[in-house]
Design goal:
heterodimer; A: 101 residues; 2 helices; 83% helix; B: 172 residues; 9 helices
C-alpha cells in the first residue's frame, strides 16, 4: 500500500497506545511464567515416574520378596565375614605402624 | 547476536537467549493483540501466554521462519479461542460507554469509531487488516500468522478495507 492510503493513516492515527519498545517488566513476567511451567512440567514428570515405579513394584513385589529374602540370607554370612575383615584391617593398621612392620 | 543464533540457543535451552527474543518481539506481538482484544491488559496477558506457548513449542519453529511470525500465529490462535469471552466484554464495555457523558475530544471519538468499526469485521478480516493495513506485515507473513492461504488473506483484506471505508466514510 502506498503512503497516501487514508484508511491506513486513520488506523495508525487511532491505534491503541503502543507498548514500549523495551519493557523489562514484560520480559520478566514471561520468564517467570516459563520458570513456573518448567517447575510444573518437572513435578508432573517426577510424579509420573514415581507412580509408574510404584505400580511396577506393587505388581512385582509378591514375586520379588522371596527372592530378596533368599538372596539376603545367602549373602548375610559373606557380608558378615567381609565386615569383620574390614574392621580387623582398620584396627590392625595402628598396631602395624607402631610395630613398624 | 543474530536472530537465528538466538533461536538456536533458545532451542538448546538458553533462558537468556529466549528472554532476548521476548524483549525484541514483545512490542510487535502486543501491538497486534491490542487490535484484536477489547482491553490492553487482556492483550498483554495473552501475549505473555503466547510467548510461553512459543517457548514450549520452540522445537516446531522452522529454521527459515521468523520468530515474530511464529509468536503472532500463536497469539492469533489464542485470540480466536478467547473470542467468545471477548465479545461478552465488548458488549459490557459498550453498555458502560453508552452510560458515560460523551467526550469532547475528537481523537477519542475517532478512536472509538475505528474500534467499533473494526469490531464489526469478522475476526479473520480484522486480523488481516490489523496486520497488513494498520501494521507493516507483508501479505505472505499475514498468511503464515493466520494459517490461511495467501489468496484468502488478500480477499479478507479487500473485504475488510471495503467495509471499513464504508463505515468510517474514508475515501478509498
Amino acid at each position: 500500500m502506498s503512503d497516501h492510503d487514508p484508511l491506513k493513516a486513520l488506523l495508525q492515527e487511532t491505534a491503541p497506545p503502543a507498548p514500549p519498545s523495551y519493557d523489562l517488566g514484560f520480559a520478566l513476567e514471561v520468564m517467570k511464567r516459563v520458570e513456573k511451567r518448567r517447575l510444573i512440567d518437572g513435578l508432573l514428570a517426577l510424579s509420573a515416574f514415581v507412580a509408574t515405579l510404584s505400580a511396577i513394584l506393587f505388581a512385582v513385589m509378591p514375586y520379588l520378596t522371596p527372592v530378596v529374602n533368599d538372596f539376603g540370607r545367602l549373602l548375610a554370612p559373606a557380608l558378615g565375614v567381609m565386615v569383620l575383615i574390614g574392621l580387623s584391617l582398620l584396627a590392625l593398621e595402628p598396631v602395624r605402624r607402631m610395630l613398624r612392620i | 547476536m543474530t536472530q537465528p543464533s538466538l533461536i538456536q540457543q533458545a532451542k538448546a535451552g538458553s533462558d537468556i537467549a529466549f528472554s532476548r527474543l521476548v524483549a525484541e518481539h514483545q512490542q510487535a506481538v502486543r501491538a497486534f493483540l491490542r487490535r484484536l482484544c477489547a482491553r490492553p491488559d487482556d492483550a498483554d496477558d495473552m501475549a505473555q501466554e503466547a510467548f510461553l506457548t512459543a517457548w514450549a513449542n520452540l522445537h516446531r519453529l522452522r529454521e527459515d521462519a521468523h520468530f515474530r511470525t511464529f509468536v503472532c500465529g500463536i497469539a492469533y490462535r489464542k485470540a480466536l479461542n478467547d473470542r467468545r469471552s471477548q465479545n461478552r466484554a465488548i458488549r459490557r464495555d459498550s453498555a458502560w460507554s453508552d452510560l458515560q457523558p460523551q467526550s469532547a475530544s475528537s481523537t477519542i471519538d475517532k478512536r472509538v469509531a475505528v474500534e467499533a468499526a473494526l469490531h464489526t469485521l469478522p475476526v479473520e478480516q480484522r486480523a488481516a487488516v490489523s496486520l497488513c493495513v494498520a501494521g507493516d506485515y507483508s501479505h505472505s507473513e499475514a498468511a503464515e500468522i493466520l494459517g490461511l492461504p495467501l489468496g484468502t488473506v488478500k480477499s479478507h483484506i479487500l473485504k475488510g478495507r471495503q467495509k471499513l471505508t464504508e463505515l468510517l466514510g474514508v475515501s478509498s
